UniProtKB/TrEMBL annotation:
Residue ranges of DNA binding: 31-50
One Pfam family linked to the record: TetR_N
Keyword Signal carried by entry: no
Domain annotation HTH tetR-type: ranges: 8-68
InterPro entries: BetI_C, Homeodomain-like_sf, HTH-type_TetR-like_transc_reg, HTH_TetR, Tet_transcr_reg_TetR-rel_C_sf
Highest taxon above the source species: Bacteria
UniProt keywords, alphabetically: DNA-binding, Repressor, Transcription, Transcription regulation
Name assigned to this protein: HTH tetR-type domain-containing protein
Length: 203
């Protein structure tokens, strides 16, 4: 392994550890020492890669987002656009333990964004990427004739709003909303616009 590869591996290990610690105890309770211990590196090495908690938090959010996101580029044409969109929706809800951790980080970001300009810009940038993922799947379906022509931006805004609202209910373990109900609610809301069946695809 080259020096550059070792540095990249260390950086990835630190970011993974930061995601886990922030999700577990919240950003306000996180210290660089705790992250270093969890990552199995020295505090000096951690500071070499990330000189402040704020930079570490921003990088950790971006890292977590990239790991759980679903891109629409490079998907084989044989995969229906409805399946691609359903996969994106799956990644945008707290579907499993990894995505629940991602959601905890999002919740931390929402809180910080209320009083920190850098965090607010980061949140907006990440939402732009979510819009691009949803919009890419919808545009793909429109081009193939699978979806009806529609206002892609408006539909993306609706999808993100529904995912946020229902995702919070799922994170709260609200007994009135389970994962199947959340998916079904979102799909039924967008199906008429897309001109597709209201049943959530089997993905």
């Amino acid at each position: 392994m080259t020096k550059a590869e070792r540095a990249l591996e260390t950086r990835e290990r630190i970011l993974t550890a930061a995601c886990e610690v922030i999700a577990d105890i919240g950003f306000e309770n996180v210290s660089m020492r705790k992250v270093a211990e969890h990552a199995g590196v020295s505090k000096a090495l951690l500071h070499y890669h990330f000189d402040t908690r704020e930079k570490l938090f921003a990088e950790a959010m971006t890292h977590s987002f990239a790991q759980t996101g679903t891109d629409t580029e490079g998907v084989p044409d044989s995969v229906p656009s409805s399946v691609v969109l359903a996969r994106i929706l799956r990644s945008m809800l707290p579907t499993d333990s990894e995505l629940r951790q991602d959601w905890k980080l999002w919740q931390e970001l929402w809180v910080r964004a209320q009083r920190d300009t850098a965090a607010r810009h980061l949140a907006v940038d990440l939402y732009d990427q979510l819009h691009a993922w949803v919009g890419g799947a919808v545009e793909r379906g429109i081009r193939s004739g699978e979806f009806a022509d529609c206002d892609v931006t408006a539909l993306g805004t609706l999808v993100l709003a529904l995912c946020d609202g229902l995702g919070i209910r799922l994170m709260l373990d609200d007994p009135r909303v389970d994962l199947a109900a959340a998916r079904s609610t979102i799909w039924r809301a967008i199906a008429p616009t897309l001109g597709i069946a209201p049943e959530f695809p089997d993905v």
